[in-house]
Amino acid sequence: ATEQSSKDEL
Amino acid sequence: MNIFRLCGDMSHLAAIIILLLKMWKTRSVAGISGKSQILFATVFTARYLDLFTSFISIYNTCMKVFFIGTVYFTIYLIYMKFKATYDSNHDSFRVEFLIVPVGGLAFLVNHEFAPLEIIWTFSIYLESVAILPQLFMISKTGEAETITSHYLFALGSYRALYLCNWIYRYYAEGFFDLIAVVAGVVQTILYCDFFYLYITKVMKGKKISLPA
Protein backbone atom coordinates (compact mmCIF):
# COMPACT_ATOMS: atom_id res chain seq x y z
CA ALA A 1 0.00 0.00 0.00
CA THR A 2 1.24 3.49 -0.70
CA GLU A 3 2.66 5.23 2.37
CA GLN A 4 -0.59 6.55 3.75
CA SER A 5 -0.44 10.29 4.17
CA SER A 6 -2.30 13.46 3.28
CA LYS A 7 0.76 14.66 1.42
CA ASP A 8 -0.52 13.12 -1.81
CA GLU A 9 -3.47 15.49 -1.61
CA LEU A 10 -3.49 19.06 -2.87
CA MET B 1 -7.46 9.36 -5.96
CA ASN B 2 -11.25 9.12 -5.66
CA ILE B 3 -14.21 10.89 -7.20
CA PHE B 4 -14.76 13.16 -4.19
CA ARG B 5 -11.19 14.40 -4.25
CA LEU B 6 -11.27 14.82 -8.03
CA CYS B 7 -14.48 16.86 -7.81
CA GLY B 8 -12.92 18.84 -4.96
CA ASP B 9 -9.84 19.67 -6.99
CA MET B 10 -12.00 20.56 -10.02
CA SER B 11 -14.11 22.82 -7.81
CA HIS B 12 -10.95 24.48 -6.52
CA LEU B 13 -9.71 24.87 -10.10
CA ALA B 14 -13.08 26.35 -11.13
CA ALA B 15 -12.96 28.84 -8.25
CA ILE B 16 -9.55 30.11 -9.31
CA ILE B 17 -10.60 30.33 -12.98
CA ILE B 18 -13.82 32.17 -12.05
CA LEU B 19 -11.80 34.66 -10.00
CA LEU B 20 -9.30 35.25 -12.81
CA LEU B 21 -12.13 35.63 -15.36
CA LYS B 22 -13.90 38.16 -13.13
CA MET B 23 -10.73 40.21 -12.80
CA TRP B 24 -9.71 39.96 -16.43
CA LYS B 25 -13.18 40.56 -17.97
CA THR B 26 -14.24 43.39 -15.66
CA ARG B 27 -10.64 44.66 -15.39
CA SER B 28 -11.46 45.22 -11.76
CA VAL B 29 -10.68 43.58 -8.40
CA ALA B 30 -13.55 45.35 -6.63
CA GLY B 31 -14.90 43.26 -3.77
CA ILE B 32 -11.90 40.90 -3.74
CA SER B 33 -9.80 40.71 -0.60
CA GLY B 34 -6.10 40.95 -1.43
CA LYS B 35 -5.32 39.75 2.09
CA SER B 36 -7.10 36.46 1.54
CA GLN B 37 -5.19 35.96 -1.68
CA ILE B 38 -1.92 36.62 0.18
CA LEU B 39 -2.93 34.04 2.78
CA PHE B 40 -3.74 31.53 0.01
CA ALA B 41 -0.35 32.23 -1.58
CA THR B 42 1.26 31.51 1.80
CA VAL B 43 -0.77 28.30 2.13
CA PHE B 44 0.26 27.01 -1.31
CA THR B 45 3.90 28.03 -0.91
CA ALA B 46 4.13 26.33 2.49
CA ARG B 47 2.26 23.22 1.38
CA TYR B 48 3.94 22.65 -1.97
CA LEU B 49 7.56 22.99 -0.84
CA ASP B 50 7.92 19.33 -1.84
CA LEU B 51 6.98 20.27 -5.41
CA PHE B 52 10.53 19.60 -6.60
CA THR B 53 11.58 16.96 -4.11
CA SER B 54 8.77 14.42 -4.19
CA PHE B 55 7.00 13.46 -7.42
CA ILE B 56 3.53 11.97 -6.87
CA SER B 57 1.92 12.20 -10.31
CA ILE B 58 1.74 14.42 -13.36
CA TYR B 59 -1.71 15.54 -12.22
CA ASN B 60 -0.44 16.41 -8.72
CA THR B 61 2.51 18.40 -10.06
CA CYS B 62 0.46 20.23 -12.71
CA MET B 63 -2.23 21.24 -10.19
CA LYS B 64 0.36 22.47 -7.70
CA VAL B 65 2.13 24.55 -10.35
CA PHE B 66 -1.22 25.93 -11.55
CA PHE B 67 -2.40 26.83 -8.02
CA ILE B 68 0.86 28.54 -7.10
CA GLY B 69 1.13 30.35 -10.43
CA THR B 70 -2.45 31.65 -10.45
CA VAL B 71 -2.48 32.80 -6.83
CA TYR B 72 0.64 34.92 -7.37
CA PHE B 73 -0.82 36.21 -10.64
CA THR B 74 -3.99 37.15 -8.72
CA ILE B 75 -1.91 39.08 -6.19
CA TYR B 76 -0.15 40.84 -9.07
CA LEU B 77 -3.55 41.83 -10.53
CA ILE B 78 -4.83 43.12 -7.18
CA TYR B 79 -1.80 45.02 -5.99
CA MET B 80 -0.33 46.13 -9.30
CA LYS B 81 -2.26 45.87 -12.55
CA PHE B 82 -5.74 46.70 -11.23
CA LYS B 83 -4.52 48.43 -8.08
CA ALA B 84 -6.80 51.43 -8.75
CA THR B 85 -9.86 49.20 -8.29
CA TYR B 86 -8.59 47.52 -5.11
CA ASP B 87 -10.78 48.51 -2.16
CA SER B 88 -8.15 48.52 0.61
CA ASN B 89 -10.41 50.43 3.01
CA HIS B 90 -12.80 47.50 3.24
CA ASP B 91 -10.03 44.91 3.12
CA SER B 92 -9.02 45.69 6.67
CA PHE B 93 -8.93 42.31 8.41
CA ARG B 94 -5.91 42.02 10.74
CA VAL B 95 -4.23 38.92 9.23
CA GLU B 96 -1.62 38.89 12.01
CA PHE B 97 -4.46 37.77 14.31
CA LEU B 98 -4.65 34.68 12.10
CA ILE B 99 -1.01 33.98 11.28
CA VAL B 100 0.35 34.16 14.84
CA PRO B 101 -2.14 31.75 16.51
CA VAL B 102 -2.04 29.40 13.50
CA GLY B 103 1.76 29.45 13.54
CA GLY B 104 1.79 28.71 17.26
CA LEU B 105 -0.75 25.90 16.90
CA ALA B 106 1.28 24.31 14.11
CA PHE B 107 4.21 24.10 16.54
CA LEU B 108 2.10 22.57 19.30
CA VAL B 109 -0.21 20.24 17.41
CA ASN B 110 1.37 18.30 14.56
CA HIS B 111 2.13 14.73 13.51
CA GLU B 112 5.89 15.11 13.86
CA PHE B 113 8.08 17.87 15.21
CA ALA B 114 10.09 18.27 11.99
CA PRO B 115 10.45 21.45 9.89
CA LEU B 116 8.64 20.23 6.75
CA GLU B 117 5.88 18.64 8.84
CA ILE B 118 5.35 21.80 10.90
CA ILE B 119 5.27 23.94 7.75
CA TRP B 120 2.76 21.56 6.18
CA THR B 121 0.62 21.67 9.34
CA PHE B 122 0.84 25.48 9.32
CA SER B 123 -0.44 25.52 5.72
CA ILE B 124 -3.35 23.23 6.67
CA TYR B 125 -4.37 25.37 9.65
CA LEU B 126 -3.89 28.63 7.73
CA GLU B 127 -5.99 27.46 4.83
CA SER B 128 -8.93 26.83 7.15
CA VAL B 129 -9.08 30.54 8.09
CA ALA B 130 -7.62 32.12 4.95
CA ILE B 131 -11.06 33.06 3.61
CA LEU B 132 -11.91 35.18 6.68
CA PRO B 133 -10.58 38.48 5.28
CA GLN B 134 -12.72 37.94 2.17
CA LEU B 135 -15.87 37.14 4.17
CA PHE B 136 -15.10 40.05 6.49
CA MET B 137 -14.78 42.38 3.47
CA ILE B 138 -18.16 41.25 2.12
CA SER B 139 -19.73 41.86 5.53
CA LYS B 140 -18.25 45.37 5.52
CA THR B 141 -19.28 46.27 1.98
CA GLY B 142 -22.63 44.58 2.66
CA GLU B 143 -22.77 42.90 -0.72
CA ALA B 144 -20.93 40.62 -3.16
CA GLU B 145 -20.96 40.62 -6.96
CA THR B 146 -22.65 37.54 -8.33
CA ILE B 147 -19.44 36.33 -9.96
CA THR B 148 -17.65 36.70 -6.60
CA SER B 149 -20.43 34.63 -5.01
CA HIS B 150 -19.80 31.86 -7.57
CA TYR B 151 -16.08 32.05 -6.76
CA LEU B 152 -16.78 31.64 -3.03
CA PHE B 153 -19.29 28.84 -3.61
CA ALA B 154 -16.77 26.86 -5.67
CA LEU B 155 -14.01 27.56 -3.15
CA GLY B 156 -16.17 26.49 -0.21
CA SER B 157 -17.35 23.37 -2.03
CA TYR B 158 -13.77 22.23 -2.68
CA ARG B 159 -12.99 21.56 0.99
CA ALA B 160 -16.50 20.20 1.64
CA LEU B 161 -15.81 17.64 -1.10
CA TYR B 162 -12.47 16.90 0.53
CA LEU B 163 -14.38 16.01 3.72
CA CYS B 164 -16.26 13.42 1.64
CA ASN B 165 -12.89 12.26 0.28
CA TRP B 166 -11.60 11.72 3.83
CA ILE B 167 -14.74 9.80 4.81
CA TYR B 168 -14.28 7.63 1.72
CA ARG B 169 -10.57 7.09 2.44
CA TYR B 170 -11.38 6.15 6.04
CA TYR B 171 -13.79 3.40 4.99
CA ALA B 172 -12.02 2.33 1.79
CA GLU B 173 -8.36 2.55 2.89
CA GLY B 174 -8.63 2.82 6.67
CA PHE B 175 -6.70 6.10 6.30
CA PHE B 176 -7.42 9.07 8.56
CA ASP B 177 -5.56 12.34 9.13
CA LEU B 178 -7.10 14.12 12.13
CA ILE B 179 -5.29 17.44 11.51
CA ALA B 180 -6.46 17.73 7.90
CA VAL B 181 -10.01 16.64 8.78
CA VAL B 182 -10.46 19.02 11.73
CA ALA B 183 -9.06 21.96 9.74
CA GLY B 184 -11.26 20.98 6.80
CA VAL B 185 -14.36 20.93 9.00
CA VAL B 186 -13.54 24.37 10.43
CA GLN B 187 -12.89 25.71 6.92
CA THR B 188 -16.21 24.39 5.60
CA ILE B 189 -18.16 25.64 8.62
CA LEU B 190 -16.88 29.17 7.96
CA TYR B 191 -18.65 29.04 4.59
CA CYS B 192 -21.97 27.81 5.96
CA ASP B 193 -23.71 31.16 6.31
CA PHE B 194 -22.41 32.10 2.88
CA PHE B 195 -23.68 28.78 1.45
CA TYR B 196 -27.08 29.60 2.95
CA LEU B 197 -27.13 33.05 1.34
CA TYR B 198 -25.89 31.62 -1.96
CA ILE B 199 -28.54 28.92 -2.13
CA THR B 200 -31.42 31.11 -0.99
CA LYS B 201 -30.45 34.15 -3.08
CA VAL B 202 -27.93 33.70 -5.86
CA MET B 203 -29.62 30.49 -7.05
CA LYS B 204 -32.79 32.59 -7.50
CA GLY B 205 -31.00 35.24 -9.51
CA LYS B 206 -30.74 37.74 -6.68
CA LYS B 207 -27.55 39.42 -5.48
CA ILE B 208 -26.14 38.75 -2.06
CA SER B 209 -26.63 41.79 0.16
CA LEU B 210 -26.01 41.36 3.87
CA PRO B 211 -28.30 42.72 6.55
CA ALA B 212 -30.82 43.88 4.03
Automatic annotation (TrEMBL), chain B:
Keywords: Endoplasmic reticulum, ER-Golgi transport, Membrane, Protein transport, Receptor, Transmembrane, Transmembrane helix, Transport. The chain crosses the membrane at residues 65-82, 94-113, 119-138, 174-199. PROSITE patterns: ER_LUMEN_RECEPTOR_2. InterPro entries: ER_ret_rcpt. One of its GO terms (biological process) is protein transport. GO terms for cellular component: endoplasmic reticulum membrane. One of its GO terms (molecular function) is ER retention sequence binding. It is a multi-pass membrane protein. Pfam families: ER_lumen_recept. It is found in: Endoplasmic reticulum membrane. PANTHER family: ER LUMEN PROTEIN RETAINING RECEPTOR. Belongs to the ERD2 family. This is ER lumen protein-retaining receptor.
